[in-house]
Design a protein that fits this description.
Length: 383
């Protein structure tokens, strides 16, 4: 008995749809939205960690000297260039003296005339005193009158006054010369310390006002790092902590340092704590001032306690916790965290016990009803 043609077609269509439907259900359950989520699990451990602080800073000079004139004038010459090393007391340049040299020579001539006037006044004073004494002796024998003796006394007093005035005039001339010489000396720009020229702000021929910087010098022995640390993780930052410094231009090398000072003023905008890190470099390897540097500060090791990787930490509905793997599936366990180290380990003060298994990585966001499939590593990852 043959089936009607329409019925045969219906059965053939059903036979073709059933495998497709089964394949669709399989795909949905295995790799679709209803498929188990692949996760990487880890075990809560008990271990000691050595916390550390990480910050970024710039190379700075603790002592920066801005060299300039003490009075307005025109810059006559500069003898150094940027990058030159200078010694304390070395002449770096000079301002135009204008008429100071002429003034010094004029004061020297005035001093010569004053000295001659003093010698002349001294001679007159000596003669007046001698005459006074001679007339006083003659008065005893009544050879001269008292009026004559009084006249000689007056001449002596006048000679004393002239001598005193000449001496004061000579002293004033010498003081004026010393002032002119000192002013002439101030026109020389001298290096206050041994250092390195880092800036040449004015060129010869330029008019400079008093106090304006012409050259900047740094003390190369006073370099340090102006480092910044996030205030959230800056607990334990203190003077004297050992530091490891890596310069941006020398990624393959690190240098020892020490916290020289923790600044009392923090950056309220970036929410960072500032610190100065002193360090020493081998001779001839001075880094550019302003170069970026990475700073790692080692804090004292802590006793062994419950520790998990920070990659396992999740924030759900404003709560911090981790996904605990149970026999029944997943459970979000709120936790209270402690300090962390730079290797990605963080203390758990409350919420988890050693030996429990938690989710470390997952291929997508998890929920309490998510089905999971534990794997060694996620597809496409480098684990």
């Amino acid at each position: 008995m043959k089936l009607p043609q329409v019925r045969r077609r219906t059965l053939a269509l059903i036979a073709a749809i059933i495998p497709l439907l089964a394949l669709f259900v399989y795909v949905v359950l295995r790799s679709g939205p209803l498929a188990p989520v692949a996760v990487v699990a880890t075990t809560v451990q008990t271990r000691a960690i050595s916390p550390a602080l990480f910050g970024v800073g710039t190379v700075e000079a603790r002592y920066l000297y801005k060299i300039g004139p003490t009075s307005a004038g025109r810059l006559q010459r500069l003898d150094v260039e940027v990058g030159d090393r200078v010694s304390a007391g070395q002449v770096l340049g000079e301002m135009d003296p204008v008429d100071l040299d002429d003034r010094v020579r004029m004061q020297e001539a005035v001093i010569k005339r004053g000295a001659a006037a003093v010698r002349e006044a001294s001679a007159r004073q000596t003669y007046a005193r001698a005459q006074e004494k001679r007339y006083e002796k003659l008065l005893v024998t009544h050879a001269v009158s008292a009026e004559a003796v009084a006249g000689r006394q007056q001449e002596r007093q006048i000679a004393d006054a002239v001598y005193s005035a000449a001496g004061e005039e000579l002293s004033r001339a010498r003081a004026d010369r010393e002032a002119a010489v000192a002013q002439r000396g101030n026109l020389r720009l001298l290096a206050p310390v041994d250092g390195l020229v880092v800036s040449r702000d004015i060129e010869p021929g330029t008019t400079v006002v008093a106090g304006q910087a012409v050259i900047e010098i740094i003390d190369t022995s006073s370099l340090w790092i102006n480092a910044r640390f996030d205030q959230i993780s800056a607990a334990g930052l203190a003077t004297g902590l050992p530091a490891r410094i890596t310069l941006r231009s020398r990624r393959d090398a690190s240098f020892d340092g020490q916290v020289a000072r923790v600044e009392p003023l923090a950056d309220a905008v970036t929410e960072e704590t500032l610190a100065k890190i002193a360090f020493a470099l081998p001779a001839g390897s001075l880094p550019p001032v302003g170069e970026l540097a990475e700073v790692t500060l080692a804090l004292p090791a802590l006793p062994a306690t419950t520790v998990i990787p920070n990659a396992a930490i999740r924030r759900i509905d404003g709560r911090i916790g981790a996904w605990l793997i149970t026999d029944g599936g997943l459970e979000f366990r709120p936790i209270r965290l402690g300090v962390a180290d730079l290797d990605g380990n963080v203390q758990v003060q409350e919420g988890l016990r050693p030996g429990e298994r938690i989710v470390l990585f997952s291929e997508k966001a998890l929920a309490a009803r998510s089905r999971i499939h534990v794997v060694d590593h996620l597809a496409g990852s480098a684990q």
